[in-house]
Write a structure and sequence with these properties.
Helix content of chain A: over 70%
CATH architecture of the largest domain in chain B: Orthogonal Bundle
Keywords (chain B): Cell membrane, Membrane, Transmembrane, Transmembrane helix, Transport
Radius of gyration of chain B: 26 Å
Oligomer: heterodimer
Strand content of chain A: under 5%
Number of helices of chain B: 14
Helix content of chain B: over 70%
Membrane topology (chain B): Multi-pass membrane protein
CATH architecture of the largest domain in chain A: Orthogonal Bundle
CATH topology of the largest domain in chain B: MetI-like fold
Order of helices and strands of chain A: HHHHHHHHHHHHHHH
Number of domains of chain B: 2
Structural class of chain A: mainly alpha
Structural class of chain B: mainly alpha
CATH class of the largest domain in chain A: Mainly Alpha
Number of strands of chain B: 2
Number of strands of chain A: 0
Order of helices and strands of chain B: HHEEHHHHHHHHHHHH
Largest sheet of chain A: none
InterPro entries (chain B): ABC_transporter_permease, MetI-like, MetI-like_sf
Strand order of the largest sheet of chain B: 1-2
Distance between the termini of chain A: 37 Å
Pfam families (chain B): BPD_transp_1
CATH superfamily of the largest domain in chain A: MetI-like
Number of helices of chain A: 15
Family (chain B): Belongs to the binding-protein-dependent transport system permease family.
CATH class of the largest domain in chain B: Mainly Alpha
Chain lengths: 281, 308
């Protein structure tokens, strides 16, 4: 076995490819099976959840769209994603600009605060936050949840934007200042256009995390008409999972298909952003 | 550099010190203030107040009644708590070994590939971007008794593998950990791969000249080369293992019969189902305490001269 894994003095990479391909099957085999199951009749799925469909039907998809209430939940999720991404890019962008470019007094303390708070568990502040939000009328309120997402995504966003902005030479900003531009104009007209790749990365990562988020969404949005795609899918899959597999599988495919496509199109940016986010906690 | 130019610009046109003070000190603060206020309202304030609530009996609606350390005394004798804590330790052990080993093996196999390296990196990363509810529902189907993978195993002559993994007290926790890991290990692999690709090639060439085989290379060149990333991820794994929630909640809700309960599940149930918000805050505080201990251990090791 050892000789197979680590053969002496050969440059053959065939064993590497074999093992990596097995891992690829482990990683995406379940997704392929998911697509198969979404095309099965209930009877077919009830017999076997692993193999090919005996007969391919597409009707699970429109059925899942209706039963899963995607028409109602998708707008909620899209509002949360758009609101959080826009607010994060503006507010975290401003903070990153101040730290990177304006010699913010006390920026060291701020960085420490962000580092420590980004490793705090949600469970620590979840309970008091929920009761505070209820007092403020922000439970069952999309804006209320957006504010929370903006806060929890802030440390990562500020770190990533700041580290990009630091590398931008100050000449352009100084030229704008000579022309009489205020700091807001410098930020908006000079720094944002120059730092757009970092803004795009942050937007993608934050958007993905909001799209996928479960715990906060399930705690703060308890009314059915405010459910997100994810929280509603959870209820849908508990109601139909274990008896209508084609239906729940079709719902799942509809939810992850846009994610996987977007990821494959921009995988370098996603991976960069997510791994940096992971390293920053 | 930036400050020098700014000074030259502002001093002739704006001679007043107050105006200068405004431009140098106030404007930068104004840029940070909105996000800082939001963050303090959402994270800092509630985090601090949970210390107070942990000392109270509180149903979450009415007034909180101060009861001193009674919640923490209750923790020491609460069977559910002790069981959940043990489960968190099992979770920790699982995530310190299996994903790390899988990610190290995969990354070291992919690193030398000249063709397909980027492709494998992207494909193996896909499970990490999926929502936890989907991942959980996929694996609930795959691990279904009789018609899932267990049924396949039974047909291949291994009927002992055909069991309801999420429904048995002896397998529920590990099944949830397995699902979490399916989504997690590829992310870890990419981190290790990135670190491995920055290990200088000369070190491998030198090792080859010394007659090292691939195993020797892995132990003496690759592992030391990625040590900062590896140690950091061990640290983060340690912290996250005390905070894990999603996958267990979605697959088993802590069941059956509390078999897969974690501390985070107890917080959730106490706060939102049993209306013991004070007790929930106390449990949440202990979770942060355990995560803090992990950080402390690493700090001590670092002071003792470990290069972390």
């Amino acid at each position: 076995m050892m000789r197979f894994l680590f053969p002496r003095r050969t440059s053959s990479l065939v064993p590497n490819y074999i093992i990596v391909l097995l891992l690829v099957i482990f990683a995406i085999g379940p997704l392929v099976i998911l697509v198969f199951n979404s095309l099965k009749t209930p009877a077919d799925a009830g017999r076997n959840l692993i193999g090919f469909p005996r007969e391919i039907i597409l009707s699970n998809y429109p059925r899942a769209w209706v039963v899963g209430q995607f028409g109602k939940t998708l707008p909620n999720t899209l509002i949360l994603v758009a609101g959080t991404v826009v607010a994060t890019l503006i507010l975290s962008g401003m903070a990153a600009y101040s730290i990177a470019k304006l010699n913010l007094p006390g920026s060291g303390i701020l960085t420490m605060y962000m580092l420590i708070s980004s490793s705090l568990p949600i469970q620590l502040f979840l309970v008091p936050l929920f009761f505070l939000w209820r007092k403020l009328g922000l439970v069952n309120n999309l804006l209320g949840l957006i504010i929370i997402y903006v806060a929890t995504n802030a440390p990562f966003s500020i770190f990533l934007l700041r580290s990009y902005m630091i590398q931008i030479p100050s000449d352009f900003e100084d030229a704008a200042r000579v022309d009489g531009a205020g700091e807001w104009d410098v930020f908006q007209r000079v720094v944002v256009p120059l730092a757009w790749p970092a803004f795009l990365t942050v937007g993608l990562v934050v958007g993905l995390s909001v799209w996928n988020e479960y715990l906060l969404a399930t705690v703060f949005l308890t009314k059915q008409e405010l459910f997100t795609v994810v929280t509603s899918y959870y209820n849908f899959s508990t109601a139909y999972g274990g008896r209508d597999w084609g239906l729940t599988s079709a719902g799942a495919v509809m939810m992850i298909f846009p994610l996987v496509v977007l990821f494959l199109l921009m995988q370098r940016r996603f991976i960069e952003g997510l791994t940096q986010g992971g390293l920053k906690g | 550099m930036g400050t020098l130019i700014k000074k030259d610009l502002s001093s002739p046109t704006r001679p007043k010190i107050t105006k200068q003070f405004f431009y140098r000190k106030v404007i930068p603060v104004l840029f940070v203030l909105p996000i800082l206020l939001i963050h303090m309202t959402v994270v800092l304030g509630p985090s601090i107040s949970s210390i107070y609530f942990s000392l109270t009996e509180w149903n979450g609606i009415g007034p909180a009644k101060f009861i001193g350390l009674a919640n923490f005394q209750k923790i020491t004798t609460d069977r559910q708590y002790i069981h959940a804590f043990q489960n968190n330790l099992i979770w920790l052990l699982f995530f310190l070994t299996i994903p790390i080993a899988m990610a190290l093996i995969a990354a070291s196999l992919i690193a030398p590939l000249k063709k397909g390296g980027l492709f494998f990196r992207a494909i193996l990363f896909i499970p990490y971007i999926l929502p936890s509810v989907i991942t959980a529902s996929i694996w609930k189907d795959l691990l279904h008794i009789d018609i899932g993978l267990g049924g396949v195993a039974a047909r291949l002559g291994m009927p002992f593998l055909n069991i309801a993994y999420f429904g048995r007290t002896d397998t529920a926790l590990l099944a949830a950990a397995f699902v979490d890991n399916w989504h997690w290990w590829g992310f870890l692999m990419v981190l290790f791969l990135t670190a491995m690709q920055s290990v200088p090639q000369e070190l491998y060439d030198a090792a080859k000249i010394d007659g090292a085989n691939r195993w020797n290379e892995f132990i003496h060149v690759t592992l030391p080369g990625i040590r900062p990333t590896l140690v950091f991820m061990l640290l983060m794994t340690g912290i996250w293992s005390f905070l894990a929630f999603d996958y267990v909640w979605i697959t088993t809700q802590g069941g059956p019969a509390g078999a897969s309960e974690l501390l985070s599940i107890l917080v959730f149930k106490n706060a939102f189902q049993r209306f013991n918000a004070g007790y929930a805050a106390a449990i949440g505080l202990t979770m942060s305490f355990f995560a803090g201990i992990i950080i402390g251990i690493f700090q001590i090791l670092r002071k003792r001269g470990w290069e972390i």
